[in-house]
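Severity: low
Component: inverse-folding endpoint
Summary: output formatting inconsistent between runs
Steps to reproduce: submit the following structure tokens with default settings.
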């Protein structure tokens, strides 16, 4: 938690403007792991809430915000195959003076170790629905990872990612884009 503990207002100190505000945050992240000789299941649920309160009546309308983030993750590790697969469901909502922004999506991925665990290959695919000021878009974030460990202290890694956005209403403020 943070608060400048000042009376509501603005104070000019040298070249810095101090604003009175208080931020509260709360979160919980329970985990449940089922380890077995050949397989391990992991479940993680995370919930986080943040609230920023501006005690200055003049700026409070523009600065106050609330955010809530939730995600559920399941991972399965197949020990004899050196294979790990996961799925993640996530949701985020940010409520502020300019409107409500939110994201909901799913991520699927996996990792495989080869060559006596010296080579690791991974892939992830994420699809997210985003909404800002009533406008929807689809976000894609896909990646391929490769790491080769030469020895205990040295490794080479490469990543290739694709990021794309496809807005439901094409206009100058929300255009389509993609990049590697």
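Observed output (run 2 of 3):
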């Amino acid at each position: 938690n943070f608060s400048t503990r000042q009376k509501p207002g603005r104070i000019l100190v040298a070249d810095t403007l101090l604003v009175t505000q208080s931020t509260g945050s709360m979160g919980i992240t329970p985990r449940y792991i089922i380890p077995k000789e050949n397989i391990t299941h992991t479940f993680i649920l995370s919930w986080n809430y943040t609230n920023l309160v501006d005690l200055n009546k003049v700026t409070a309308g523009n600065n106050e915000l609330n955010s809530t983030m939730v995600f559920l993750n399941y991972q399965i590790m197949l020990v004899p195959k050196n294979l790990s697969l996961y799925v993640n469901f996530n949701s985020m909502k940010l409520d502020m003076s300019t409107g409500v922004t939110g994201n909901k999506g799913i991520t699927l991925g996996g990792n495989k170790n080869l060559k006596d665990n010296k080579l690791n290959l991974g892939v992830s695919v994420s699809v997210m629905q985003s909404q800002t000021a009533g406008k929807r878009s689809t976000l894609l974030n896909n990646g391929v990872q490769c790491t080769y460990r030469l020895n205990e202290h040295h490794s080479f890694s490469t990543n290739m990612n694709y990021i794309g956005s496809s807005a439901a209403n094409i206009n100058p403020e929300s255009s389509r884009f993609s990049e590697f």
